Amino acid sequence: MRAIIDIGTNSVRLLIAEKDDKEEWKVLKKDLRSTRLGEGMTDKAFIGKGPRERTLKAIEEFTAAARLEGASEIFAYGTSIMRDAANGAEFSDEVTAATGIPVRILSGKEEAYYSYIGAAGTPSVVTSVVDIGGGSTEMCMGFGTDIGIRHSFRLGCVRCSKQFDTTTPRGLAELKKHCFALFRDTDLMESMKNVKRWIGVGGTVTSLAAMLQELEVYDSSKVQDYVIHQEDVNRMLKHLSSLSYDEKCHLTGLMPERADIIVAGVAILDSLMEYFALPEIMVSDRDLSEGLLDADVLHPNESR
């Protein structure tokens, strides 16, 4: 039995799984704590005392839960905030001292790769996986296990909520302009234009799928493989940006702890779908955590 603790910019997630008779991973338990490790995040990231304490407590609870379940292997991974923050490595050492679990801080390309593996597996068609996180957005294109392009953008729902005023049309326009500028600075357009299958992962897209279906209780079976159309993203962006914080907190399908960052996340998705002319994107509830289950045997080539 193996446990994965994913330490993200917005939340800490636990996944516990074991291999079945076919040597395939079967998920036994998933849990999440919104600790906002990247609170106040900008491009000059620094992890504050409050976020550190909240996040460390969640990691300690998840470590104890994994051991109680009988997990013989527990792996912890840090993402955007931990690789960007000046004190990210220091916090990693603090986690290890408190739990005994070493923390591996993933590079942007590694994060893109493992999100692809978790969501797409080994697809028989050219597939691009987009992971909109709290501090960064990763994109990975591949065919089966043959990976073509991986890229990590400094775009995330927590980071961009701090950088832009997502409560005004002008602020949203500036955010979208920023997204387009970052997309243009890469050579992705030419490579991505023939991709037919796009998969979105992360809290923004799963929340959007839950809101569009008006799910009173999050149901992974209804979120998995749900197709979101570009016009729905644009409509929801306009709707969400017109609501007050309190109104968003009471919106069916949206967790209250995402109310203050959901607009930025949807704006990033809207920008991406507009820039790459995507009519639709499929949602996956399986993501980075599932991909990390095999991180000990899968090693992405960092040069690609």
Q: How would you describe this structure in keywords?
A:
13 helices, Nucleotidyltransferase, domain 5, 2 domains, five-stranded mixed sheet, 304 residues, six-stranded mixed sheet, alpha/beta
Q: Would you write up a description of this structure?
A:
The protein folds into two domains: 104 residues, Nucleotidyltransferase, domain 5, CATH 3.30.420; 175 residues, Nucleotidyltransferase, domain 5, CATH 3.30.420. It has 304 residues and is of the alpha/beta class. The chain contains 13 helices and eleven strands. The radius of gyration is 18 Å and the shape is globular. The mean pLDDT is 92. β1 and β2 form a beta hairpin. α1 runs parallel beside α3, α8 crosses α12 and α10 packs antiparallel against α12. Helix content is 43%, strand content 21%.
